[in-house]
Amino acid sequence: MARKLPSVDVVLVGFGWTAAMLGQELTDAGLKVLALERGTWRDTSTDFAVTFAQDELRYYYRRALFQEPAQETLTFRNSANETALPMRELGSFLPASGVGGAGIHWNGQYWRFLPSDFVARTHNIERYGAGAFPDTMSIQDWGVTYDDLEPYYDKFERLCGISGKAGNIKGAIQTGGNPFEGARSRDYPNPPMEMTYGPTLFAEAARQIGYKPFACASANMSRAYTNPLGVTLGQCSYCGFCEKYGCGNYSKASPQTTILPVLMRKPNFELRTGSEVIRINQDKNNKRATGVTYVTEQGEEFEQPAEIVIMCAFILHNAHLLLTSGIGTPYDPQTGQGAIGKNYAYQIVSSVDVFFDDKIINPFVGAGALGMAIDEFNGDNFDHTGLGFIGGGYIALWNTNGRPIETHPVPKGTPKWGGKFKKAVAENYLKTATIATHGSVMSHRANHLDLDPTYRDIHGRPLMRMTFDYTDNEHKMSDYLTDRATDVAKAMKAREFHAKKREGHYSIVPYQTTHNTGGAIMGSDPKSSALNRYLQSWDLHNLFVMGASAFPQNPGYNPTGTIGALTYWAADAIRNQYLKSPGPLVQA
Amino acid sequence: MRIALLSSMTLVVQMAIFGGLAAAPAAAGEQSFEQVERGKALVDAGDCVACHTQDQNKPFAGGRPIKTPFGTLYSPNITPDRETGIGAWSDDDFYRAMHEGVAPDGARLYPAFPYPYFTKMRHDDVLAIRAYLNTLQPISNSRPKNELQWPLNHRVFMRGWDLLFFTPGTFAPNPNKSDEWNRGAYLVEGPGHCGGCHTPKNFLGAEKAAETLDGGNLQNWFAPNITNNQHLGVGSWTPDEIAEYLKTGRNVHSGAAALMSEVVRDSTSKMSDADLHAIAVYLKDVNGKSKSPPSSVDQSSNDTGRLIYADSCSACHRSNGTGLPHMFPPLAKNANVQSSDPTTVIRVILQGTRTAVTDSRPTASSMPSYDWKLSDKEVAAVATYVRNAWNNAAPTVTADEVKSLRKQLEAATP
After folding, report:
1. Does B23 reach chain A within 8 Å, measured CB to CB?
2. How near does any CA of chain B get to the CA of A364, in Å?
3. Which of B10, B315, B326 sits opposite A50 (nearest CB)?
4. Same fold for the domain at B179-202+209-283 and the one at B303-409?
5. What is the pLDDT of residues B62-72, one digit of tens each?
6. Model ipTM value
7. Residue B31's pLDDT is what?
8. Quick one: CA dihedral B325, B328, B332, B338, positive or negative?
9. What is the CATH number of domain A3-49+61-578?
10. Which residue from A375, A490, B125, B195 has the least number of CB within 10 angstroms?
11. pLDDT tens digits, residue range B377-411?
12. Given A232, A237, A264, which is nearest B3 (Cβ)?
C-alpha cells in the first residue's frame, strides 16, 4: 500500500533536461516543484572528472550512463505479423538513466527544424498534390509553427551557449551559415568552433560541386560562456569524448552545466533520486491527474499528489507510462483510432567512409558537434517531384572522435582480425574520415508503440512493445542522400571511398541513433493526437508531456534544439496561461 | 541535501528575526530593529555560524569539533536557551566573554574562540550582537566535553596564556587614515578575525605579531598571505577585485576553495559592499613582513612536471597557465600557487577542491583529485612546475613533502 505524501504544486517525472528547464521556470513562478528521478545524482566534478571521464570501456562498452535492461526494457518486432521479443541488451538506441538524462551523453549537435517540418502534411500536399505520400503514411502537422517557436529556440540557444553561425537573420541570408534554415531573430551566442582538417576538406569539396557548406552549430563551447542564469561553461578542449560521455571540462551544454547549479539552490525545488514513477494517477472522472505513484530503490511505494504533473522522461518511458496508467485511448493500427503510442518514428542514417593517402586527418582532435554540413537535401529544401519519397536529411562530416577502442577504420575487404587488420588500422587511422547522412523518418500507420501481451517488467506492468520498420519512403530517401554524399566523397579526391547504405529491415541491434520520437504526439485535434499545441494532454488538463514523444514524425535533424524550444514554449503557456486559469488551453 | 538545508536555515534565521521583533516592546521597536540588524551584520562578518553550528538544522546551537594542535574543542551553544545556551547570561557577562575571554563563572575561555580579535569590538557593537543572538530560536543542545592535552585541559592554564599573549583593548581608529580604512581595519582585526587563519601562530597558538596576515598553516591548509605583497599576497589585486572575491567567491585571479569557501558562503557574501570595499582598502595598506620574491627554479629539466601539466591540467588551466578567470583559476602569477608554504598546492593536487558557490557565481567548478593517479614524485614535479612556469617563482616541492601530507590526509595512493 502506497504511503500518501503531502501535495506539491508540480511534480516532474524524470529529471533530465526538460525537467530541469521546467523546474527553473516554474520555481521562478513561485511554485513548489518536486522532481522524481529513478536514477542517481550526477555532477561534473564527482561523476565526470577529467581524471576518469575519458574511459571508453566504462562509458561506451559497459554503458555506465545508460538504462539497464534489467531495470526496464521493451519488446520489439518489425511488423504486426511477428511476435515481439524482449530486448535483453539495448543497441540501436540507448536511453539514459540518472540526473541529466540524455543531456549528459549527447554529442551537442544542435539544429532547429525547418518551418516546413512543422506543417509536413499540408506543406507536402500543397506542393506535390494529394498524392504526395500514400495513405499508409500518417503524417500530421504539429499544431505549432516555426514562428511560434522561434523565440523559444533563441532562449534555449542562450541557455546552452550554442556555438555557430546564423544562416538567416530576419530573412537576410548570412554568408557562412546554413542558408536553408528558418529566419532567426539573431545570431548564436558564440562563434563556430575551430574547424579541423577533415570537415574542412569536406566543405571544400562540397563547395566545388555547387553546395553551400557551413559550420554545424554546436553545444560544445567555442569559448567560455556565462549563460543568462549566471552559470559558466568552459572552452572545449576538443578531447573527443562527447557522445556517451559526460564532459569533464564543463564545456558541453547539459542540465549540469546550464541549469542545475542555480536550480538546486532554490528552496522551492526538491529532487528525489532513486524514485521511479510507475503510475500517473487520475481522478474518478478521468479529467485531472491527481499525482503520481513512485517506488524507491528500497521497494517502498509512495503516492505523491500534485496540482500539475509533467512527464519529462525519455519518449519511450513517457509513452509507456501513459499506456500503463490508462490515460487517453491507445492507438490501434488497424483502425487508426486512438492516439497513445501513435506515430512512433526514428531516423535513418548512412555513411560514406573516405580514405586518403596523403592527408593527415588526426581524428582524435574532435568534439561531438565539430563538423561541416550541407543542408540542400533536408526536409523540403529540394524538389521531390518524381523522386518517390518525401523528407530528407543533412549530409555532414563530423570529427567527433578518434577514440582508440572504437575507431579502427579499414578499407573494404580488410580481414576483421589478425595481422592484416592491425596493419590496415595503423595505416588508415590518421587518414580516414566519414561523411554521415542523417535522414528523417516519416510516420507510418503500422509503426507504433503499445503494451506487450506477454512480457512484464519488475513492477508487474506489461512491457512496452515497439513495432517498427523502415518503409520504401525511408529507403528511397536514404539512398538518395547517400548518393549525394558519395558525390561529395568523389570530389574530395580520396584514394578510395565506400558508401554504406542502410539496407533491408530495421535492426534494433547495432547502434544507430537515440533519436526516437512519437507515441504521445502533439496536434490540433484530440482524435488524432495525444497533446495539444502546448504539450498539454487532451485528456487530463493538468498533465503535460515534454520531449520528442510529441513529434508527429521525425525530421532530418537532431532533436535537442526543438525539444528545448518546445519545453520553453510549454513552460511559458503554463506560467502565463494555465496558472491564471487552470483548464484546457485549447478547446477540443 | 546540504544546499536545501542551508536555504531552510536562512529561512529559520529570518523567521527568528521577525519573530523576535514581534515580541519586542512597540516603543523600543525602531531602535531595537536597527540594533538587531547591525548585530546580524556583525554576526555574518564574524562568521559565528561556522564554528557554532554542527547540525545544520540547529544553527548556533554549537557542538562542532574544532581541531587544534592541542586537541579538540567543541563549540558552545550560543542560542538563547537558558540551560544549554547563553540565555541566562547578562549583557555584561556577554561583553566580558567577548572582550576579556572570561566566562560568567570566571573560567578562562580558549582562544579557539577568537576573543583576542573580538576584544577590539566596540561595546555597542558587542551588545548589538547580543541583541541579535537573543532573537534566535532557543535550542537545547549540550556540547561534548573538550578533548585537550594536559595541561591545557585545565582552564586555569589559560590565565598564563592571556598574560603572555593577550591584551584586552578596543580598536583605536587611526586619525591619519580615512574612515573607510578605519572601518576596514576594524572589520579585519575585530569581528572578521582574518588573522585567525591568515596570521602565522607560535608554538602556543598565539599570533606572531610581526607577521600579521602573512599567511598561516592550519588543518593541513595554508591560508595565504593577504597583505599587499605583490608576489605572495593580494598586491596585484585592485580593491574592487578583493571586494568581488569576498562577495562572490571569485575574481579574475582566484576562486575561494576549502575553508575560505565556507567563509565566503556563510560570511563575506552576506556583508555589505561598503564593508567589503573597506576591508579591501585596508588590506591594500598592510605591508606585512616584506619578502623579496625568490628566483624561479629552472624547469628545463622537469619533463615530468611539464608533461603531467600538459596531459592533466592544461584543459582547464590552459597551456599558458591563464585558466579561465572566474571559473578555472589562472596559475600564472597566482600568489596562492607561489606561497612559500606549498601545503595548499600539494593538497589541491592530491585531493582536489571545490570552488565557493554564491548566488552571483553559482557554477561549482571543481578540481578533481589526483592522489589515486600520481605518485609523490609526480605530484612534487607538477607542483614545482606550476610554481615556476610562466615567470612564477617558488621553492621546489619535494616528494617527501608530498609523502608526508598524503599520509596526514590519509589520501589515496596510485
Report:
1. no
2. 14
3. B315
4. yes
5. 999 988 888 89
6. 0.88
7. 59
8. positive
9. 3.50.50.60
10. A490
11. 999 999 999 999 999 999 999 999 999 999 999 99
12. A264
